[in-house]
Amino acid sequence: MTEYWVKMDINRQQALKMLDELADARSKLRKDLQRSRRSAQKALADRGIEVAEASLPARIRLPSPDQVAAYRMQTRAIVAKDRKPFGFAILVVIFGAMPLVDGAN
Amino acid sequence: MARIRRPRYLCFFCEDFPFLDIDQLLRGQLEQIAARQLTAFSILCGETVELSPEDLELVLATPSSEWVESSDEVRARALARQGVLLIDEDDEELAELRRRDERLTELNWNLESAVYHFVARWRGVDLRENGADLEPPSSQAVRDFVDAFGAPPPAFYAVEGDRVELPTVTRDGQLYDVLLRRRTARSFDLARDLPLEELAGVLRYVFGYHGFARLLGEITTLKRTSPSAGGFHPVEAYPLLLRVEGVEPGLYHYNGRDHALERIAALDPGDARELAAELVCGQTYFADAHVLVALAARFDRAFWKYRNHPKALAALLMDAAHLSQTLYLVCTEMELGAFVTAAVNNADIDERFGLDGFQEGVLAVCGFGKPAAHPSAFDPTFEPLP
C-alpha cells in the first residue's frame, strides 16, 4: 500500500528561517527543492520535515519568492511571537491609569 | 552517570502557529496550516522553554518523586539549565534550581498559582523609549489602539429586568469627604521634602499593627486598618525613600510592630529616582513620588495556613489591594497624593530588597508624597454624573 504522509518537527524559529529561505529567489533551499525529488526530500528532512516518497509530486513547483514574501509579512508577527513571558510587545498606550498591554501570550 | 529528577513545578503548553502546507507548497500553492509548538513553563527559571518531541519524551519518562540515572546526559543537562529537569551535579546554577524546587514544595506553593505568579513576575520591563520620561499618548496612538483592538466594552453596565429605584443618600463627615476626594496622583512636588511626621503617619495608619490575638496560644493573628485573609497580614511594606526630611534616601523595611524603619541599603539621591523609575517599569510620574512602598507577600506565612490552596494567591492579592486603598484614604485625609501600580518589575524589586521571590516576593508598588500644584498630563478630568 502506498503511504502518503508529511511529518513536521519544526519550531517557530525554524519556521521563520524556512520562510525567509523560500522568499529568497537565490536560496539553496529553493534550488534543492526544485533540483530533484531526492534533494527535496533531504532539504526538507534537514529542516525537521519528513515527506513520504509518494507524497512528492512528479515535478516540484514552488510559489514565487514574492508570494512567499507576502505570506511571510502577513504571518511573521504571529509566528515570531516572543515566548518569553516578560518579553511581549509592550505597552502601546498609556491612558492615565495602568498601561494598556498587548500581551497576547 | 548523572542522576535526574523532574521538577514538581513545571507545566506544559501546546500552541499553534501558522505555517505552510508542505504538500501544497511542493505543488506551487501557498496554503496555511497550523504547526504545533510544545513549550514548558519552568517556574524555577521563570521562563518558557520550547521542547522537541525528544525533550518531552525524556521529561515525561523522568519521575518527580525520585532520582534516576539519565540515559541522555547531554539533553538532560541542557534541559536542567532551563529548569525543565533537575540534575544532581555540583554546578552552582544547577544546585540553585534544585533548591528552588525544594523551597516551592516546602513552602506549600500551589502549582497553578505558582505558574500565574511567576509568569507575571516581570524583570527589566521599561515603557520608556531611549530613557526619556513618559509622555501621554498622542490621539493618533489612541486611535490606532482602538482600530487594532476595537472600542472597549461600555463603561456603564445594566442588566435587563425589574428595577428598584433607590433613594439618593448623602452622608456628611470626614470619611465621606475623603472617599469622594480619593484619586490617583501622578505629579508630585519636587521642591519640597516630605516631613518625617507625615511619613510616619501614613506608615502607622496603613501598615502598622494595632492589635493582635492569640489563637489557642499558638497562632498570632494581627489587626491593621485593612482586612486580611485569616487575620494573618502576610503583606509587608518595603519603603523606598526618595525625599523625606531627616531620613537618608534608601531601601527600608517598615517594622509594623515597633513602628520603625529598618534600613536595607542606602541610595545616592541622584540614583534613587532612576532606580524608582526602573522598578515601576519606567512610569516616571510615579518615580517622582517622595516615597514608594513595595508590597511584598510573605508566602511562607500565608501558605502555612492555606497550604497548596488554589485561592491562597488570590487572597494575598486582595490583601495588597486593601492596603493600597487604605493608603489612598489616609493620604487623601493628609492632603498627600497616592498611587498604586501592578506594572512593576517584581523580580528586580525582590533582588534589590534581598527577597528570594519564593518565600517572600513583591506583588505591587504603591507610593505617596506632597502633590504638585498642577496635575499630571496623564490625569483624567472627571465630570460629575448627570
Distance between the termini of chain A: 43 Å
Secondary-structure element order of chain B, as H and E?
A: EEHEEHEHEHHHHHEEEEEHHEHHEHE
In helices, the fraction of residues of chain B equals 25-40%
| CATH class bucket of the largest domain in chain B | Alpha Beta
Question: Count the strands of chain B?
Answer: 14
Return Rg of chain A in Å: 19 Å
Please name the CATH topology of the largest domain in chain B.
Answer: NADH Oxidase
The number of helices of chain B is: 13
> Gap between N and C termini of chain B, in Å?
76 Å
CATH architecture of the largest domain in chain B: 3-Layer(aba) Sandwich
Biggest sheet descriptor of chain B: 6 strands, antiparallel
Largest interface: A-B, 46 and 49 residues
What integer is the average pLDDT of chain B?
Answer: 94
Enumerate the spans of chain A where pLDDT stays under 50 for 5 or more consecutive residues: 83-93, 101-105
Mean pLDDT across every amino acid position of chain A:
77
Strand content of chain A: 5-15%
Low-confidence stretches of chain B: none
| Oligomerization status of the protein chains | heterodimer
| Physical arrangement of strands within the biggest beta sheet of chain B | 11-10-9-12-14-13
Overview of this protein structure:
The complex is a heterodimer of chains A (105) and B (386). Chain A contains 4 helices and 2 strands. Chain A is mostly helical and 105 residues long. Chain A has one domain. In chain B, α7 packs across α12 and α8 packs antiparallel against α12. In chain B, strands 11-10-9-12-14-13 form a 6-stranded antiparallel sheet, sandwiched between helices. A 3-stranded antiparallel sheet of chain B has the order 5-1-6. Chain B has a 3-stranded antiparallel sheet with strand order 2-3-4. Chain B is globular and about 70 Å long. By secondary structure, chain B is α+β, with helices and mostly antiparallel strands.
